[in-house]
UniProtKB/TrEMBL annotation, chains A, B:
GO molecular function, one term: transcription cis-regulatory region binding
Protein name: Catabolite control protein A
Matching InterPro entries: Cro/C1-type_HTH, HTH_LacI, LacI/GalR-like_sensor, Lambda_DNA-bd_dom_sf, Peripla_BP_I
Lineage: Bacteria, Bacillati, Bacillota, Bacilli, Lactobacillales
Annotated Pfam families: LacI, Peripla_BP_3
Amino acid sequence: MMAKKVTIRQVADEAGVSVTTVSQILNDKGGRFSQETRDRVLAVKERLHYVPDFNARNLILHSSKMLGVLIPDLRNPFFSSFIHGIQEYCRDATYMPMVFSANHDVKLETYYLGKLLEHSVDGLIIASASITAEAIDKLVKPLQVPYLLFDQNQIANLADRIEVDDYNGGLLAGQHLTELGHQKMAILLPANSTINVRERLRGFKAAIKQAGLPADNLTEIHADFSMKAGYEATQKVLDSNVSAVFCADDILAIGLYRGLNERGLHVPGDLSIIGYDDIDLDQYVYPRLTTIAQPVVEIGRESARLLVNRLEKPDIDRQLIKFPVKLVQRESTSVKK
Amino acid sequence: MMAKKVTIRQVADEAGVSVTTVSQILNDKGGRFSQETRDRVLAVKERLHYVPDFNARNLILHSSKMLGVLIPDLRNPFFSSFIHGIQEYCRDATYMPMVFSANHDVKLETYYLGKLLEHSVDGLIIASASITAEAIDKLVKPLQVPYLLFDQNQIANLADRIEVDDYNGGLLAGQHLTELGHQKMAILLPANSTINVRERLRGFKAAIKQAGLPADNLTEIHADFSMKAGYEATQKVLDSNVSAVFCADDILAIGLYRGLNERGLHVPGDLSIIGYDDIDLDQYVYPRLTTIAQPVVEIGRESARLLVNRLEKPDIDRQLIKFPVKLVQRESTSVKK
DNA sequence: CTGAAAGCGCTAACAT
DNA sequence: ATGTTAGCGCTTTCAG
């Protein structure tokens, strides 16, 4: 069951030096040893395929060089890209991200949070909506493991944070649609949205107001972040009798596409649709989806950077990075006829 | 930087017992202690938020309870679902999967393989195409870390393995198209395909033969597994002058959809398309994609099961599980006119 | 029923 | 330039 590991002692014996010597040389602290000794140790290491035991190493260093990452849904391309960015940065920083998807399930999320902590991750990136303030207070705080929050903020007055200018995202979406002449519109978003999604809504409402339209021209329709939910919301959208829909994420829009398609309806002819995120897929659906773009790979990268920075300088002030969004106009929106 | 951890010693002191007692009780080996003692220890543990130090624990047990998972592309929904299955099984088995995506890059793959080993994973699930036999021989074998291969087999005579009946998948695809009357067909697949993909090709060719068509009725077109590559292959497909295309994965098909769409061509009217994998997205594109379904979530689950089984019973015979595929007929294929 | 003691593989003061 | 020693936090004989 267990791997027969070569230990540092064997390398030391084989090279005819002490354990210390090997340790120092292998950790690039071997300046004080002769070139000859260093070469010998390195050679033996290679020959025996020595790999240091992280468990022993971490036990002393009190660091596992692992980062825990909690996301709500691995199957959403948005988060795949987020992870992509995190992995990219972690390679440079020689950390290993441990990624878990909680599938929007509070129980699962708490489970993974606990496990991650058990495995003594050095820090946490929590990009999960369902995590509760209590879970963080109860599990994370006592261990003093630094964490960073993304996509939510009700919890987080003291933690480092990544934010996206979601208010502006909603505003841009709303301005785009109203400029196209739409007056009655719907928004598709989850029932208990996190703060970032509520910001999108707030921005969208602001645009409606700016355009001089009455607030009740906007119909809110609840749907979870999945293609299926978007699809299933189709009838409600149609019943709401609007000419344009703002989907709080792209996945939702793609689900809605299908529902409209099955009913023989045409986008944007019968209904203009704008999404949110700008996932790759947007360019591969028909019609290509107009959306609000978030720089998600960069967001992932920066999340990791901020966290690692915090680990290395525990005492710096609370960090906050805010990312801009932009409108990416494609073919799913058009002037109201 | 480091978390102030509560140690077992503090729990012992607080509870007025020895370290041994705490260890035994917390590891469910406390049968020999009085109920009273057990309760007290458990209570103190709760109160102090004690979490055992995995590094110390693993150092002794020679097991990290972690599994390394290497996949080629996290952004392909097929692999997201694969991971999903792995995570599911791992929860039951109390292992933690560490997932890394190598983005079809040999260097990256070798890097992650090494890192995973450094972090002393107990076993590996390698579902990555670009991994080389040498990398496995050089890195994995000496450490005697059990591993399981999926989606390739040239390497693996002795390792446990998960296989999918890809020959049959290709055959089914070919039979479906020939039964619809198609005579000239193309197949889209990566240039240096892994064995599983080549099996799909072999099955497809067998179907052509069965149908009494000449072998050169099939045009092979190379494209990596990405939407972009499928899109970029469009012109080649059109130049090949075929009436049907077999895409070696669904993602490719969706890319091709876009290329055809931009040229005003119609699926399946102008070209029948069949994919491979049966990702969720297939039902959300227009027309819904006919495909060969692999039970990918189950494959992930079984991969983890097999590996964990191997870890627990190191001496059992080499394990091999073979999964069936099936044709899922939707609207992207039709009779040749 | 409970505890003392040894030791997992490694790093880092502190000698020499 | 190199080695000795102590100890990280835990599990596990073994002795009471």
